[in-house]
Every structure is written in C-alpha cells, then in structure tokens.
Amino acid sequence: RPRVLSGIQPTAGSFHLGNYLGAVRQWVALQESHDAFYMVVDLHAITVPQDPKELSANTRLAVAQLLAAGLDPDRCTLFVQSHVPEHAQLAWVMNCLTGFGEASRMTQFKDKSARQGADRASVGLFTYPILQVADILLYQADEVPVGEDQRQHIELTRDLAERFNGRFGETFTIPKPYILKETGKIYDLQEPSIKMSKSASTPKGLINLLDEPKVSAKKVKSAVTDTDTVIRYDAENKPGVSNLLGIYSTLTGTSVAELERQYEGKLYGALKTDLAEVVVDFVTPFRDRTQQYLDDPETLDSILAKGAEKARSVAAETLSRTYERVGFLPAK
Ligand code: AQP
C-alpha cells in the first residue's frame, strides 16, 4: 500500500470547515486504501506564542476531533508529533540543506510574519516549512493530503529530498501533494477572495466545527454572495456563491451541476437556508462524538501511545539511515 502522511495544528481549539474539507476528510478516505500516518503537530504550534495549559488541552481536543471525523486507530497510525523525537532531529539535518533565500521565499511565512509584525516573528516560524519537510520524509510518504496553501511546502520537500538523495545517495521517497480541486481551498464566508483561516478570517467568515450549530447556521445565512441572482458555479466571477456550492456539494455528495439544477430560478436565500441546515446536520453529531472522546482520556492516551510506538519505529529507521549517510559517527 502506498503511504500517506499529514498533520494538523492544535492551535485554535476547534477545527474549521476549511481544515475539515481541505484535509481531514481526505485523511479519513485514504486510511482505507493507504498506509496512513496522521499527527497532531504540536511542535509547529509553538512557532507562535502558546499558553502551555491550552496547548496540551488543545492537543487532546485535536485528537478527539480527528477520531470524531472518522479516523480509526485500527486503520491508521495516529500520534502526537512531539512524542516522536526524530522529527526535530531530522529537521536539523534538513535545515542545514536549505538555502536561506530558498526558505525566505515561502509565502506562508511571509503572510504569517506580516500579520505578527516581522520583528516579532520567531525563527521557528521561519523554519517551520523545513520541520514539515522532515515530518514527511521521515515516513517515506508517497502522498501528502493537504489544502492548496501547503502546495509550496510539498514542493520544498521534493526539492530537499532530491538534493539529499543526489548528494548522499538514495534515502528518501519523493512525495506528491494530494490536493483535491473541489476542496483544496475553502474561502472565507465574508471575504471569498481569501481562504478560510483561523488567523486571517473574521469570526463571521469562519465556521468552527465546535461552535454552537446555530451560530454556524447564522454565519452561512449571512455569507457574502454577489449582486447577480443566478445560482451558478463560477469561481472567478461569483466566488461567494461558488464557495457555498462547493461546500454544499462536498458535505452532501451531490454534484455541483445537480445543485445548479435544483436551485434554478431560486434565490440565494434558499441556497443559504438549505446549506445552513446541511452544516448543522454535519456539526451536531461531530460535536457530540468529539465530547465522547474527550470524556474518555484513558482510551485517548492508549491510542496515542500505540500510535507513537508505531510512528517511532518507522521514523527511527529513516533517521538512522540519514545520520549514516551524512557521516555522523554511529554511537556504540
Ligand atoms: N481554507 C482552507 N481550505 C482548504 N484547506 C485548508 N486548510 C487550512 N485552511 C484551509 C488545510 O488544513 C490542514 C491543517 O492546517 P493547519 O494545521 O495548517 O491549520 P492552520 O494553519 O491552523 O489552519 P489555518 O486556518 O490555515 O491557519 P492559519 O492560516 O492561521 O495558519 C492543512 O492541510 C491545510 O492546508
């Protein structure tokens, strides 16, 4: 079976609809066909200031949400990044292989550091794409299911893997991004030209899966559309409506073409009211399941212990091969 690897940050508490549709939903599907490794990336979370108590609580919450979304620990390896020390160890090697200019071109860093004020951004935030390179290469992943915003980091991963292999001999699998066209970028409900994001979106533009369902319904009903009245998919000229159609289509399994037929001659209000109901029907059981997993911390801990053990066995093998190739004297 080909291997997939992906991660999600525990930073915000609740996952948002973009995280779910862009990434986590694919993780659930891929565990059936792939040897799947999924992790909560707490090392990435500390690239911006964190409250220690909140970080550990949010890490548990992220695991509970992944299980609620449908990850099955018997079908995939689910773990917390800091439980596998090899991530930080391989990241150092990759840091030393990356050009400063090359790292400076990462647009995510530019966006995020601009939001924080360039002087206040940490060196960790600057090098986090390189930690991500290590995350992926450690597991010899064939594919990486992520949202469109991560494409550049997968490109960097491919470049560094090829550079290492070229310099030191075949060591790493060259991974491919796994990004779905329909859901690779879910847009902000108020500003459909930017991605839905925990840090850039306003509260009204962002659907948090763990919010009160009626709060999310209200946000859908007040989503920005356009002055035209036709319900038609046209990402360029009708980004708001197209975003709603994309979300609707993915959550219900109805094609966009079919939705266009269903809503022919109807007003935007009808589409929004129905989509609000679809969202409520999705988040209500999701919230309940998340709470059930949170209420059972022993089960959660044992899933993570098993996941870390399995992840470590793969990661340790890749790291020791890498160290050997680099020329580090083996410890006796
Ligand atoms: N709007 C989105 N559409 C599609 N996919 C998205 N992802 C995030 N936003 C969208 C994908 O979700 C996965 C996990 O992302 P993350 O751990 O990087 O989460 P994040 O960075 O906390 O999410 P945000 O909202 O993007 O935060 P900001 O912008 O504040 O950093 C990834 O696969 C990502 O592509």
UniProtKB/TrEMBL annotation:
<dbReference type="GO" id="GO:0004830">
    <property type="term" value="F:tryptophan-tRNA ligase activity"/>
</dbReference>
<dbReference type="Pfam" id="PF00579">
    <property type="entry name" value="tRNA-synt_1b"/>
</dbReference>
<comment type="subunit">
    <text>Homodimer.</text>
</comment>
<dbReference type="InterPro" id="IPR050203">
    <property type="entry name" value="Trp-tRNA_synthetase"/>
</dbReference>
<feature type="binding site">
    <location>
        <begin position="18"/>
        <end position="19"/>
    </location>
    <ligand>
        <name>ATP</name>
    </ligand>
</feature>
<dbReference type="InterPro" id="IPR014729">
    <property type="entry name" value="Rossmann-like_a/b/a_fold"/>
</dbReference>
<dbReference type="InterPro" id="IPR002306">
    <property type="entry name" value="Trp-tRNA-ligase"/>
</dbReference>
<feature type="binding site">
    <location>
        <position position="186"/>
    </location>
    <ligand>
        <name>ATP</name>
    </ligand>
</feature>
<keyword id="KW-0030">Aminoacyl-tRNA synthetase</keyword>
<dbReference type="InterPro" id="IPR024109">
    <property type="entry name" value="Trp-tRNA-ligase_bac-type"/>
</dbReference>
<feature type="binding site">
    <location>
        <position position="135"/>
    </location>
    <ligand>
        <name>L-tryptophan</name>
    </ligand>
</feature>
<keyword id="KW-0648">Protein biosynthesis</keyword>
<keyword id="KW-0547">Nucleotide-binding</keyword>
<comment type="similarity">
    <text>Belongs to the class-I aminoacyl-tRNA synthetase family.</text>
</comment>
<keyword id="KW-0067">ATP-binding</keyword>
<keyword id="KW-0436">Ligase</keyword>
<protein>
    <recommendedName>
        <fullName>Tryptophan--tRNA ligase</fullName>
        <ecNumber>6.1.1.2</ecNumber>
    </recommendedName>
</protein>
<feature type="short sequence motif" description="'KMSKS' region">
    <location>
        <begin position="195"/>
        <end position="199"/>
    </location>
</feature>
<feature type="binding site">
    <location>
        <begin position="147"/>
        <end position="149"/>
    </location>
    <ligand>
        <name>ATP</name>
    </ligand>
</feature>
<dbReference type="InterPro" id="IPR002305">
    <property type="entry name" value="aa-tRNA-synth_Ic"/>
</dbReference>
<dbReference type="InterPro" id="IPR001412">
    <property type="entry name" value="aa-tRNA-synth_I_CS"/>
</dbReference>
<comment type="function">
    <text>Catalyzes the attachment of tryptophan to tRNA(Trp).</text>
</comment>
<feature type="binding site">
    <location>
        <begin position="195"/>
        <end position="199"/>
    </location>
    <ligand>
        <name>ATP</name>
    </ligand>
</feature>
<feature type="binding site">
    <location>
        <begin position="9"/>
        <end position="11"/>
    </location>
    <ligand>
        <name>ATP</name>
    </ligand>
</feature>
<keyword id="KW-0963">Cytoplasm</keyword>
